[in-house]
Design brief:
CATH topology: Rossmann fold
Distance between the termini: 30 Å
Site (Stabilizes the basic form of H active site to accept a proton): 109
Protein name: Peptidyl-tRNA hydrolase
Subcellular location: Cytoplasm
Radius of gyration: 15 Å
Number of strands: 7
Number of helices: 6
Catalytic activity: an N-acyl-L-alpha-aminoacyl-tRNA + H2O = an N-acyl-L-amino acid + a tRNA + H(+)
Enzyme class: hydrolase
Shape: globular
CATH architecture: 3-Layer(aba) Sandwich
Number of domains: 1
CATH class: Alpha Beta
Largest sheet: 7 strands, mixed
CATH superfamily: Peptidyl-tRNA hydrolase
Order of helices and strands: EHEEEHEEHEHHH
């Protein structure tokens, strides 16, 4: 496990931590850029734009940006590995910055939520998400924050794995920028106001 629960644990709230790590999940490479599975990358790209930074390769295995989000010190990260191996880069980056899992926020696509839905939670299962499963295994805990970006269920009998590796539909793309913006707002709220107040705002 990376670090131990302390002042940054869920009781104290992430808003009381000195530094937070916000990880967006996705697959690297331009061929995946518009996929539903890359929703997390889209959100941290928006957050990076807000703090005026550019991602740079980091020895922890991710691309990172350091700055302040809504006045809160944060490291934004995008693992350079594929989704199902995201845990190594996330754990490596957390170790480098001495960030506990309880000060980690993972932004990811969520099949079990309709498109246009944003939900926040702390801990719990991975819901079959390979990126979350890899992170939990590498950290040795499921106790970290998640910001869930709803992408909806696949139509008919389409394999969920195929569905998330397809680009957002034309109708979805018309609303995508607004949803990415809302999800980025939810991350900032989580850092500054904590989980319960943010859930009250966005749920």
């Amino acid at each position: 496990m990376v670090g131990e629960a302390g002042a940054t644990g869920v009781g104290g709230g992430i808003e009381h931590s000195d530094l937070a790590l916000v990880v967006g999940l996705g697959n690297p490479g331009p061929q995946y850029a518009g996929n539903r599975h890359n929703a997390g990358f889209l959100v941290v790209d928006e957050l990076a734009a807000r703090l005026g930074g550019k991602f740079k390769a980091h020895k922890g295995g991710a691309e990172v940006v350091e700055g302040r989000l809504a006045g809160h010190r944060a490291v934004l990260a995008k693992p350079r590995s594929f989704m199902n191996l995201a845990g190594g880069p996330v754990a490596g980056t957390a170790r480098f910055y001495k960030i506990t899992p309880q000060a980690l926020v993972v932004v990811h696509d969520e099949l079990d939520l309709p498109f246009g839905t944003v939900r926040l939670k702390f801990g719990g299962g991975e819901g079959g998400h390979n990126g979350l499963r890899s992170i939990s295994k590498s950290l040795g805990t499921r106790d970290y924050y998640r910001v869930r970006f709803g992408v909806g269920r696949p139509p008919g009998r389409m394999d969920p794995a195929d569905y998330v590796l397809r680009d957002f539909a034309t109708a979805e793309r018309r609303e995508l920028a607004l949803l990415v913006d809302q999800c980025a707002d939810a991350v900032e709220s989580l850092l500054t106001k904590g989980l319960e107040a943010s859930q009250n705002t966005f749920h």
